[in-house]
Amino acid sequence: MFYGYIGDTRSLNDVITGLLQGRTGTLELFVNRYFLSLKVKDGLVTEFRCDVLPEGRKKANYYNLLIYCLAEMISNPEGFFAFYDEESKMKALPLENPVGSDELMIQATIVRRELDEIVDRIISPYAIFKATAKDPKVSFYEGKNLVEAVSFSQDPIIPVVREIKDLLLEGKLDIYEFRESEYQEAPDIDYMMESVPLKRVNVVAILESLRNSSFSGIAKISSTTYTINLFYENGEMFAVYPVDQDIFEFFLSPDRNAELSLVALDSSIVRFVAMRFLAKPEIDMVSSHFMEVSKLALGLSKYRKDALLLISEKLGDRYIVFKEGRLLMNMIETAGKFKPSDTLKFTEPYFVSLYFYKKVDNLASIVYLFMINEVLSVFMKRSPTKMNTLILREAVRYPFIVFSEGKFHLVKNPGEEEERGLMTLLSFMLDLGAQEIGEKKQEEELEFQLRPFRDIFKVLNIEKYLKAAQG
What we know:
The chain has about 475 residues and is α+β, with helices and mostly antiparallel strands. It has helices at about 10-20, 60-75, 100-120, 135-140, 145-150, 155-170, 205-210, 245-250, 270-280, 295-300, 365-380, 385-395, 415-450, 455-460, 465-470; strands at about 1-5, 25-30, 35-40, 45-50, 80-85, 95-100, 125-130, 175-180, 190-195, 215-220, 225-235, 235-240, 260-265, 285, 305-315, 315-325, 325-335, 335-340, 350-355, 400-405, 405-410. The protein has a six-stranded antiparallel β-sheet with strand order 1-5-2-3-4-6, sandwiched between helices. β16 (about 315-325) and β17 form a beta hairpin.
């Protein structure tokens, strides 16, 4: 078995042409966000699997499709490879005539040059063509994008891309629609606010602005002794880290010595970043001396996983986000600041962590815990002995909370099970209060106690959680 990093066109060419000479087995490539698997017999490629598959692929010209995929890899030849001395058992597309690796790379290189000239005119290979001349050879391209045009044509790929280029130059072919592709450019990172002292801003007004602007990203509040991360998706806060932070009290009386930074991230990646703080990793900080990251990246792409690959190196923490097996984002956090990264080459030694996608929403749990403590405060004023004994006896059933200094605290990030448990405990306490104090009296005292938080509740839209807890 051979595996490693590909950093440029030459190394990609060496892997495909040099490594496959006379060999039998399977070569897997993850390059330029594409996955490609080549089945090889005696140095000839007989079958392949790639993630560039147009609709109606049973009618596709598999040879053209393979060349197109390689041509896309050449445009940004960085990634990983692995070669196995055995055939892959995964389903693959058969080539009618097995082909040598030298021919593949020559064809792909020529096609890449032609594609560059076409894409300069149409902006995206997923732009939809429109025929502007009544000509049978032009009408074939009507309603197709570049990928579909070369894949569905029964002619060799080089004449096809050259014909498309000529038809565009002659004005016989145009574009009329830009269809969104799953292979988009990496999302941007935008620092809307950076290290602004809280004494200069109105925290509630900022929270309201984030909601109204459908903000996605991280609101980071930092001081010399702590950092609070608030995670947002389309204007809704969905998680807080650390989980034992009483954010409602903090928002009510902000630390004026703290600073606020707002980093806007695409909504497609913010939940993956949140996992780094709130989820338990499948692989946790394993040294590169014992972990081959190229095989890990290939596996995530091959099996179309949603995952966060975290690489901790001297420069900082690198976040590599995979969505359905494709690389969605590669960014690095250095000195607490995120910025895009244009390389997958890591500085030795580095440490590898892997998080498979899972729900990390915890705001509901934090709301329930806050309400539990507010109800407890009412009980301590009204019936401190009897009711508190009953509550503490009930709370023992929930090992993820502890009672300290007159309040309950979370000892772990709550998942769905913990969320249900907190909602059950809150419901129990409200029912107990209705029996012992009276429902109306309890509501009046809670309303009075929660009045200072009214604006905060409104901008965080937590009413839905309170309604759920009340039944």
